[in-house]
Amino acid sequence: MYSMTIHTVKATTFEQTNFEQWKEAAIQTLKGKPFESLMTATLEGIDLHPLYTRDNVSEGTNTVRVGKEQTGWVVAQQTYATDGKQFVSELKTALARGNEAIVYDGTKSLEWDDVSLAEIAQLMVKYPMIVTNVARNDAFLKAFTFVPEVDRSAVKGAVAVAGWLIPAGFDHVRIYASDTWKAHHDGADAVTELALTLAQAAEQLDKQENFHDFAERFFARFAVDTHFFMEIAKFRAFRMLWQAFGTAYGVSEVPYVPIVASTSLRSYSKLDPYVNLLRAGNGAFSAVLGGADVLTVHPHDILTGPTESSVRFARNIQLVIKEESHADKVMDPAGGSYFIETLTAELVDKAWALFVEIEAAGGYEAFLQQGYLAELLEKRRSEVAKGKTSLIGTNVYAELTDTNLTNWDGVNVEGRLAEPFEEVRALFAEEQPKTVLLTFGELKDFKPRADFVGGFLATGGIRSEWSPAFPDAQAAIDWLTYEKPAYAIVCATSAMAETVMDQLLRDCPEEVLVDAAGKFEPAITQQWLSAGLNGFIYGGQNKIDKLLDIQSKWKGAVPVEKA
Hints:
The N and C termini lie far apart (70 Å). The strands form four sheets. Strands 3-11-10-9-8 form a five-stranded parallel β-sheet. A five-stranded parallel β-sheet has the order 13-12-14-15-16, covered by helices on one side. The protein has a four-stranded parallel β-sheet with strand order 4-5-6-7, with no helix packed on it. The protein is built from 20 helices and 16 strands. It is α/β, with parallel strands linked by helices. Helix 10 links the parallel strand 10 (259-263) and strand 11. Helix 7 runs parallel beside helix 9 (228-248) and helix 15 runs parallel beside helix 20.
């Protein structure tokens, strides 16, 4: 009987379903909404479809196949220290525990002695170097002079330092770079990052005599954010664009250029910082699948200062990916996905077109001066403020816990999306109004709005308490008169709110600031505002603007409760 069942399963066939049939079924489930509602618009100007098929790939371009020189990637975890001696000690420990590179960031300057520099020089011969944010007078660069001339050809890495001349003999160290780290945090989308990478390369290449010599010592550095599939496609698109770039310069065999990736800090937050672990893991995995050659994962608490445990967590993210996914055994893990192939091709087309525009407009620096990145950053922050883009623990599902809001001097990054919420949290951490959710009717009626308002206020660090459920306006007025809160939000069904609001606004104690949960008809809205209602709290509202409005209305004018 069992064997017959297996035989039946093996022999069973299914009728092949085409895209149009799938689309019909999808439309039925939408219950009147248009099919286009399943599309997702991105800042790159690309509409993400709900389903991709072979036809999507064949319509635009040939299937994109992206190869690397070899499988795997270099685990390049940054070392954090207060001086050179500690740096060497921490570096050796990290190398023994899975790190595979010497990573030095010059944002936080260190004191170096010759003994420590000599030890770095010895390690440079064995491990690749990744040096970022370093000025030409940084003492760390002296380590290169400690490497014997006979060993210098064994040193590899990526060290682009403006105005610094690398000592002779380091022929395998890449010293030219396109680095979009700052542009990324200034608001750039994937298309813009790719175009700017080519623009930087073109700007530097104009000063060189030979394309091959330049390319052999060139690398591209990208920040990798949490838009998982877009980041995979971004890295793959660079491979295609670099080939096109070389071809435009008349090169038939374009030298391979490595991608150095670091997890973005754009979506990192000081609020509920352990969520940054998830962001780092997301970004790291997309970098791996996209084909990064070198990867740095930033600790979840890097904004306020990394700890021994957070550094270990960050390093282990890469080690776990290697052990669990085996992505280091595959040349192009994302290759063959209709979605990824199509998205890659779209990025290639759009990035090349933008690159041509940048060059025609005067190049990299001229483009930056146009203010385009500032517009993108403002749009990103607006989407976060309105909840269109979620930052878990920051603009949604915020935890009302004590938060470290200090700035660590070892990281220097502007443009983080969580900064406006952190600033508001700092305001309300000092003092905040005694806040109540004024509930009416039965629990099932007011709970949805009360839960929403409580979560809304929590993103600003405002603690709120539910009032008893009142049957009418007079009961609420009596309670407010006795409890004397500074701020109250009416949470009720629209019908109940319309029933109680007129009397509530007329007889409510003057010192109580009153808002209403929900959106109402314009005529009712204006009537209530004229009667003394402060405003409304509703979905899609700019939370930062509303929270600052609350703070400005009660500050110094109404009773406050220490946070």
